[in-house]
Amino acid sequence: MNRIALIFFAAGVILSVSIPAAAQQVTPSHGIAMHGDLKYGPNFKHYDYVNPNAPKGGDIRLAAIGGYDSFNPFIIKGRPASGIGLLYDSLLTSSADEAFSRYGHIAESVEVAEDRSWVIFTLDADARWHDGKSISVDDVIWSFNTLKTQGRPIYRFYYSNVSTAEEVGPRKVKFTFTGGENRELPLIISELTILPKHYWEGRDFSKTTLEPPLGSGAYRIASFEPNRSITYERVPDYWAEDRSTMVGKNNFGEIRYDYYRDGTVAQEAFKAGEFDYRSENGSKAWATAYEIPAVKTGLIKKEELPHNRVAGMQGFVFNTRNSLFKDSNVRRAIANAFDFEWSNEVLFYGQYTRTRSFFDNSELAATGLPKGKERELLENYRGRIPDEVFMESYVPPKTDGSGNIRENLQDALRLFKTAGWNVDTTNRKLTHTSGQIMSFEILLVSPLFERIILPFKQNLERLGIDVTVRIIDTAQYQERLNSYDFEMVVSSWGQSLSPGNEQRALWGSSAANRNGTRNLAGLQDPVIDELIEILISAPDRAALVTATRALDRVLQWQHIVVPNWHIPYDRLVYWNKFGRPAVTPDSGAQFFSWWIDKEKVEQLEKQRKSSTQ
After folding, report:
1. Which residues contact 558 (CB under 8 A, 6 or more apart)?
2. Using CA atoms, how far apart are residues 278 and 64, in angstroms rounded to an integer?
């Protein structure tokens, strides 16, 4: 994450390790940006959104839901412990106030070919594991090969165009890319989590483990109780402590995650003072649950912090692998049964905006009708994509908010009819011409969503559809998601301001039938595959925006999801013991740049004592 001054090798040293001539002409840099220039120069002292003088120390408690049975988050098996990523570092590290830039960390400098066909990282000589051993090029190469062959499927998709990883000099590792222009690959490989080869030799990487692993990050495991809690302690001699990208961060001395059965239990535990900080995702809770004395007296702070993150997409996801949902008219019909306007008024206290794009709240979202370069791109696929792409701007079905959605249900029945479904007059069930009665299950992991799903279920039943809502524990839920053993789930796809190779795992055909990917809907469309590749190879920001909008527009008209909602701010509640930087970056609250304020802690304890007397 952090870096020291750049080290430039003398020409004789470079020649002695046989780096290709093309590499000799590349100037090492302290970082790399996807498009355009880096915000922070080579000698920057710290990010703008941190307090460089933040005090270190103090203990905090956070909450996690469900349980855990593994300290190996890199494989598909098991449930990894919350916060386990605190143990590890990557080659470069990101900033929270740029679209996609990476700065030196384990690698102190980076060299990139002009055509971005390869990248060379020079490792920081001071980078070391918690056992004191230096992080080596062997560790980097082993990490890449192991994650790609034994790790979660996302690694195979993410690194699919990385052909080789090789040592090319003292502390130098080179990655070479194939598969055509893919300007994102140097940044993608820079995100590689580096693992200790010497630790994993003799251990089975493909298995879950509750043996605390060796890392190099700012924290290490101090104690744990499986499925109940895990505590991390700050490493006192963390090698990157004074690097510019780490200044003002990782300020807490100890971080403990306590596990709760569900969000409702966790919410009550927070109000009782059992943990310190909560990002609230429930609109009802935000409106009503914190009308308590602790908030009114200032013991608990309740704040809305604006952000400019891409909203991504949350929604009721259709599994199109299921024959019931193969026809887009069926999916489109079902979407008519969700009354967002009524839900927003009655259930959400008017807090949300309806999501209509997979890249909402950003310039990447496709709105209106396609024009200019985007239309030119989409014209190449006319006849292979829905005609509506050129004729209509996608808008999810709307209602007047009264709860009377008769017109929407009539529209739904018309769409069902085109797909061969009609309401049987004898049993009032929606029945296909083949005799099949429409029924499906909506799978949930949180009981908080039940109050939202039940009105949707009731509207579907008015159409003659049998709907079952099932809530299962986190372990079962994750297993069923990994194997696509569901008909409909509530899920989300996060997005960044610089989408790229990860889109293959979200929508690509090759991900549809490979367990554990994020292609939950099971999309297999060659046009989408082609648009993803065009997006990945975009030579500049303008071309990236054009390709992303085209992809977004085609995704919208696939009707793979009943869109939900989003908000342009973070809803935070926390006990008043923290200090935080004056600047909040575009990506939102950066909790691990906060710190414990001793004076506030003392005052908080005094107020707590006086309130109990």
Report:
1. 328, 521, 523, 525, 528
2. 10
Q: Edge-to-edge strand order for the sheet containing 172-177?
A: 107-112, 118-123, 172-177, 162-169
Burial of 38 (C-beta count, 10 Å sphere; 0-12/13-18/19+): middle
What residues does 119 pair with on adjacent strands? 112, 175
CA distance 116 to 183: 6
Q: Tokens for 372, please give them.
A: 């200019």
Euclidean distance between the first and final Cα of the chain, in Å?
47
Residue 1 contacts residue 245 (beta carbons within 8 Å): yes
Contact 73, 84 (CB under 8 A): yes
Among 331, 473, 306, 344, CA closest to 412: 331
What pLDDT is recorded for position 613?
A: 56
Angle, helix 541-556 to helix 526-536, in steps of 10 degrees: 160
Residue 383, by phi and psi: left (phi above 0), alpha (psi -120 to 50) or beta? Answer: left
How far is it, in rounded angstroms, from Cα 357 to Cα 368?
11
Please state which of the ranges 24-33, 378-387, 438-447, 588-597 shows the lowest mean pLDDT: 24-33
Nearest partner of 347 among 262, 442, 451, judged by Cα: 451
Domains and CATH numbers, the chain: 264-303+573-613 (no CATH), 313-566 (3.10.105.10)
Q: Residue 530 — very low, low, confident or very high, per pLDDT cuts 50/70/90?
A: very high
Q: Is the Cα torsion angle 523, 524, 530, 536 positive or negative in sign? A: positive
- Per-residue pLDDT of 157-184, as tens digits, reads 889 899 999 999 999 999 999 977 788 9
Classify each residue of 204-239 as buried b or exposed e, where b means 16 or more C-beta atoms within 10 Å of its C-beta.
ebeeeeeebbbbbbbbbbeebeeeebbbbbbbeebb
The 10s digit of each residue's pLDDT in 469-522 is 999 998 899 999 999 999 999 999 999 999 999 999 999 999 999 998 999 999
